[in-house]
Amino acid sequence: MINKYLLLCFFLLSMVSCTSNDAEIPLSDNLLIGSWVNPIYDGETTTFKRASALPDKDYGISFKLNGVLVERSSGWCGTPPLSFFDYTGQWQLEDSLILISQEHLYPNNYAWRIISLTKTELVVKRELTEQEIDYRDLMDLFDDLYELKVNFTCNNASNWTYTAYGSKACGGPQGYIAYPKELEAAFLQKVNAYTEAERAYNLKWEIISTCDVPREPIGIECLNGYPVLKY
Questions:
Q1: Of 11, 63, 107, 163, which one is least surrounded by beta carbons within 10 A?
Q2: Is the distance from CB of 69 to CB of 87 less than 8 angstroms?
Q3: What does the CA dihedral 54, 51, 125, 41 come to, rounded to 10 degrees?
């Protein structure tokens, strides 16, 4: 009878010990859950350290169980004195890829590839998402049309003209661009290619823009060899 009593006490003690240890284990077996601070940038990788909470006056990012992400940042400017704000978003994990979506960023979807992850350290590498790849392709098209005219010096404004380019998500062009008349056929072809590509990009990624209409220039003048639109 005594042996049975001792066995029962040992069993109950074991249960209490297990409960005590479990209390120290995070609510999720996903080590990513929690706050990460003190980013150290080394080439293409960034190393974070785990913290109990986000810092008041420094960068940090927090991954929550419900898929909500909180980023504490001073924004893009970074001019002292810095003011830090919380930006929320969504995150999900696909294998070793962290997919992040935030409304205040553009492009508003980006991804981090997990290089290593322990209880105390997170090392990630920025990886281009499909949207960012599409955006780079779009910018390559714009560079193509810009490079076409860059070697032409503006000495006589009568040799230059302008055209609308691009497609705002709300409709209408992004703006106007000057080009030499002798390049008209080739230049307009590239402008049309860029405009159609931007229209397709806006539809694919549901881009939002303002609906104001850019003012059309009234002419061109040459300043220091460059064409300047007159309004």
A1: 11
A2: no
A3: 80
Task: Give me the torsion for CA of 71, 77, 82, 87, rounded to 10°.
Answer: -20
Strands 60-63 and 219-223: unpaired
Residues 194-206 have a mean pLDDT of 95
Tokens representing 146 are 């810009």
Residues 46-59: tens digit of each pLDDT: 999 999 999 999 99
Fold of the domain built from segment(s) 25-127: Lipocalin (2.40.128)
Encode 122-140: b = buried (16+ Cβ within 10 Å), e = exposed. Answer: bbbeebebebeebbeebee
Task: Look up residue 170 and give its two tokens.
Answer: 């709300």
User: Do 28 and 65 touch, CB atoms closer than 8 A?
Assistant: yes
| Amino acid, res. 181 | K
Locate the DSSP E strands across 43-120: 45-51, 60-63, 68-73, 85-94, 97-101, 109-117
Cis peptide, bond prior to residue 81, ω within 30 of zero: yes
> Could you state, in order of their start, the residue ranges of all structural domains in the chain?
25-127, 132-230
Q: CB-based burial of residue 46 (10 Å sphere; 0-12 exposed, 13-18 middle, 19+ buried)?
A: middle
Locate tokens 């927090």: which residue? Answer: 62
Please choose, from the candidates 197, 92, 96, the residue with its C-alpha nearest in 3D space to the C-alpha of residue 144. Answer: 197
Structure tokens of 109? 């979807």
Whether this prediction's pTM lies above 0.70 is answered by no
Residues 22 and 16: their CA atoms lie apart, in Å, by 10
What number of CA atoms fall less than 13 Å from residue 119's CA on the CB side? 5
Better-predicted residue by pLDDT, 65 or 26: 65
